[in-house]
Design a protein that fits this description.
Length: 210
């Protein structure tokens, strides 16, 4: 009887210990996924999009026999919204867990239905809002007298400054648009892609069209 009571007490203690620890593990996993997806957002905006434009000009256009007078850098700036949003949306839609070992993938696949991937817009948005709230119109010939914070970040410049043409556009503003505005677009697109995956919206759309 004493042995049975002791084993029962040990089982209850073990169960209570698991109950107290279990909420911590999902929280840590959610935070890890959130940080991982945030890194992916910035990688898409800052590295992947310019790389895809460069590969398009270097590989695809010559095969198609198309010659463009616009440089890849200027083309990227002129289509910054498109070349940032589309790759980020696809990255958010793709299940990253399928590329990981099965033991890890099962856990991530379970928690991916949560809000981690759908919340990655938060950090890029915070940086954008912080920049706009602290914006002061620069005193330069490159700006009009009515330059607003919204125009500074969202009126994308179309010319990349070079050594031969340093005054083509403001390099500081261009850098802000590439490292603040572009991640904002990518974060929104990534979150939408993750939400589309979560609710199986594309599958539902295809079923209705078929």
């Amino acid at each position: 009887m004493t042995v049975a009571m002791a084993s029962q007490a040990a089982a209850n203690e073990s169960q209570s210990g698991q109950t107290s620890v279990s909420p911590t593990r999902p929280s840590a996993l959610w935070l890890g996924l959130f940080l991982l997806n945030t890194v992916l957002v910035y990688a898409c905006a800052i590295h992947l999009s310019p790389m895809l434009v460069g590969r398009w000009f270097a590989w695809v256009l010559p095969i198609l026999g198309i010659h463009s007078s616009v440089t890849p850098a200027n083309w990227y700036l002129r289509h910054l919204e498109l070349v940032t949003i589309v790759p980020a949306f696809i990255a958010g839609y793709i299940d990253v867990a399928r590329f990981l070992p099965a033991t890890i993938a099962k856990r991530i696949a379970t928690w991916r239905s949560g809000s981690a991937a759908s919340s990655v817009w938060l950090i890029p948005t915070l940086f954008l809002v912080w920049g706009m709230l602290n914006f002061h119109a620069p005193s330069s010939v490159l700006y009009g007298s009515s330059m607003s914070a919204f125009g500074y970040y969202f009126n994308i410049q179309h010319v990349m400054p070079t050594l031969a043409n340093l005054l083509a556009s403001d390099p500081v503003r261009m850098r802000s648009q590439m490292f603040v505005t572009a991640p904002f677009f990518a974060g929104i697109a990534f979150s939408i892609g993750a939400s589309v995956w979560k609710h199986r919206l594309l599958a539902r759309l295809f079923r209705r069209l078929s």
